[in-house]
Write a structure and sequence with these properties.
ArAT, 15% strand, pyridoxal phosphate binding, three-stranded antiparallel β-sheet, alpha/beta, histidinol-phosphate transaminase activity, pyridoxal phosphate, 13 helices, aromatic-amino-acid transaminase activity
């Protein structure tokens, strides 16, 4: 006889990471192509020497560094094994009944439906409008069963973002008893001027708003798994209660602290990525593809029914991208030579005739 397993797990899809293929260029996972900052690499090497010791379960030094950096108190900071772990913990602290609702736009981050089901809650989705969050529709979808709302800004996988004024109007409509998670995993790539959305600032006087950020993207620490939440002390205290003990390694904490201290160098690197992102979008638009403005380190190409065929053709040309069947593909901005390989494929007359004209 086999052990009893929750029967509803049969209906929960496993998270599927961007695939890899030996010898192919991988532009599927929104990773940075440059390794950790030099200061972080040094901190990693030093921290490994103490790998026989447990990490600080409270991540006290990292929380203090983040608090100073963001102008908040350590009590406003929680650290997790990547921001996705914090997403799951937010479901755990807000939802206790299968009828409790987790609300988010779709399409958005693929982990949201998975962690909602794992948390035994009910997912409620609101369609994007032209690949952008429809915050009016999202606000209208809130019910007395809504416990948590995810707003991914910039949105993964479309790369689009909403501005500060629009976010403020939305947050003002959300009942105080509903927790809003502003998922800002790609915050460092935002370059909106005049209406720049900064979740930490928006959350300062809103105790029902928590902000999620990560060291996986712009900081180049995806393999170490460290993210953080910024919110009201009551929310942070609850997150600490469901935190898996010692899940943020000593190495990850040391690398994150060093990366914060080297932030000016980080900003120089993000400018390089943004320049490549804009160069790629300009070329794709010129070829006839539909590509919304991106505020992340990737681009979204709307392809509809041709999505899978386009992704397979790209793989055959040596570039792995991320398809979302029936909708479009997500393409990471990588090194210039990697991006050129993809652009050569995408702008080839045969490819354009097959895919761009019908997009």
């Amino acid at each position: 006889m086999t052990a009893h397993i929750r029967p509803d797990l049969d209906f929960i899809p496993a998270y599927v990471p961007g695939r890899s293929h030996p010898g192919a260029v991988k532009l599927a996972s929104n990773e940075t192509t440059i390794g950790p900052l030099p200061a972080a690499s040094k901190a990693i090497a030093e921290a490994v020497e103490l790998a026989n010791r447990y990490p600080d379960n409270q991540s006290g030094e990292l929380r203090a560094a983040l608090a100073e950096f963001l102008g908040v108190e350590p009590a406003n900071i929680a650290v997790g094994c990547g921001s996705v772990a914090l997403c799951q913990e937010l479901v755990q602290i807000t939802c206790a009944d299968p009828a409790d609702e987790v609300l988010y736009a779709w399409r958005s981050f693929e982990a949201y439906p998975i962690i909602t089901q794992v948390g035994n809650a009910t997912a409620v989705t609101v369609p994007l409008t032209d690949e952008v969050h429809d915050l009016d529709a999202l606000a209208a979808a809130i019910t007395d069963r809504t416990r948590l709302v995810f707003v991914c800004n910039p949105n993964n996988p479309t790369g689009t973002a909403v501005g500060r004024a629009e976010l403020e109007r939305f947050l003002d409509r959300v009942p105080g008893g509903v927790l809003v998670a502003l998922d800002e995993a790609y915050y460092e790539y935002l370059r909106m001027t005049g209406d720049h959305p900064d979740g930490v600032e928006l959350a300062r006087n809103r105790p029902n708003v928590v902000v999620l950020r990560t060291f996986s993207k712009a900081y180049g620490l995806a393999g170490l798994r460290v993210g953080y939440a910024v919110g009201a002390p009551e929310v942070i205290e609850a997150l600490l209660k469901v935190h898996i003990p010692f899940s943020v390694s000593r190495v990850a904490q040391a690398a994150a602290i060093a990366s914060l201290e080297a932030r000016p160098e980080l900003l120089d690197r993000t400018e390089t990525v943004i320049a490549e992102r804009e160069r790629m979008r300009t070329a794709l638009l010129a070829a006839g593809y539909r590509v919304p403005v991106s505020e992340s380190n990737f681009l979204w190409i709307t392809l509809g029914a041709a999505t899978i065929d386009f992704a397979e053709a790209s793989a055959a040309a040596g570039v792995i991208i991320r398809p979302f069947a029936g909708e479009g593909v997500r393409v990471t901005a990588g090194d210039p030579h990697e991006n050129d390989l993809f652009l050569n494929f995408a702008s080839d007359p045969e490819t354009v005739a097959r895919f761009a004209r019908g997009a």
